[in-house]
Write a structure and sequence with these properties.
The protein is of the alpha/beta class. It has helices spanning 5-12, 18-29, 31-34, 39-46, 50-59, 65-77, 82-93, 98-116, 119-131, 144-157, 169-176, 195-206, 244-260, 262-278, 285-288, and strands spanning 135-138, 161-164, 184-189, 210-215, 228-231, 235-237, 240-242. It has a 5-stranded parallel β-sheet, with helices on both faces. A two-stranded antiparallel ribbon has the order 6-7. Strand 1, helix 10 and strand 2 (161-164) form a beta-alpha-beta unit. The termini are far apart.
């Protein structure tokens, strides 16, 4: 269900029982907390049974509580302020072991990404990059490390790679203004979605450039402005955006492109190895001891 659950609650409110009204009121007033509660915990918080919460989700038109919770989370993640993120994280963690919780969450996002990532879209993205005259990589704020990491390896493979990260909107447009239909833009965006990334992708697409969006949904602001969408599931833990799954997609892109350019890269790295050795770029084994 793609519509805003808050609007749905307002529409259905006249039909709710007393217990359902308590659930609806809590979700409306504290949606940032409710979205990350189990059905049992939500029921205890508002004073109804777990089964009442489950029936409430079904009455709203969802298959069950997990689907309603997913809808709440998708709606919430783009609305959360930094302060709300801290509060939500505190509620989610509770007495759990933080390390175990974060690792489990990251592994779950990797699993989900493996299930939803279109291999056809991935192959199309790789082919577009290989055919491009120039490759632009756009990532701002928390996604800037992803852009820089991809750019670091892409610079070994291509001669005309431009990383656009850490810039304000004006500087961003100055960097991408020369993009043409022969070029490719690879852009990253996750909740809370950066408006500058969306505007940059929209501009590049208007020039005829191929836009590859790495984001969490085809319906995200970047997703709807991309020619190829590589879906990577992300999550929020306190102030930290989990970018484990997006980084895995970046790794997959690098490996796939390298496999296609094996001969050229072998020569490039053979030359680099000689340079690295001559100028002592890396510590020798005896220096590491």
């Amino acid at each position: 269900m793609s519509y805003d659950i808050l609007a749905l609650l307002q529409e259905k409110e006249p039909t709710f029982s007393k217990g359902q009204k308590r659930i609806a009121r809590y979700i409306t007033e504290d949606y940032d907390k409710a979205a990350f509660m189990t059905a049992n915990r939500l029921g205890k918080t508002v004073g109804v049974s777990e089964s009442t919460v489950v029936r409430f989700a079904v009455d709203l038109g969802f298959d069950g509580y997990p689907e309603m919770q997913k809808a709440m989370q998708e709606m919430v993640l783009n609305r959360l302020t930094a302060v709300q993120r801290i509060e939500v994280a505190s509620n989610r963690i509770g007495d759990q072991d933080v390390v175990s919780m974060v690792l489990h969450s990251d592994m779950e996002k990797l699993r989900q990404t493996g299930e939803v990532l279109s291999r056809e879209e991935f192959s199309a993205a790789v082919n577009a990059i290989l055919k491009a005259k120039r490759v632009y990589i756009l990532g701002v704020r928390s996604t800037a490390p992803l852009a820089n990491f991809l750019g670091y390896y892409m610079n070994y493979m291509f001669n005309n790679v431009h990383v656009v990260s850490g810039f304000g909107m004006v500087e961003m447009f100055e960097k991408i203004v020369g993009i043409t239909s022969e070029d490719v833009l690879i852009a990253f965006s996750f909740p809370r979605y950066s408006s500058s990334t969306t505007k940059g992708a929209k501009y590049c697409r208007s020039t005829g450039a191929t836009v590859i969006g790495i984001t969490d949904s085809r319906l995200s602001p970047l997703g709807v402005n991309s020619d190829h969408v590589l879906i990577a599931k992300s999550d929020m833990v306190s102030l930290v955006d989990s970018l484990v799954a997006p980084l895995s997609i970046v790794n997959a892109l690098i490996v796939a492109i390298a496999a296609k350019r094996e001969n050229e890269l072998s020569q490039t790295f053979a030359n680099l190895e000689r340079i690295w050795d001559e100028y002592d770029v890396y510590a020798k084994n005896e220096e590491q001891a």
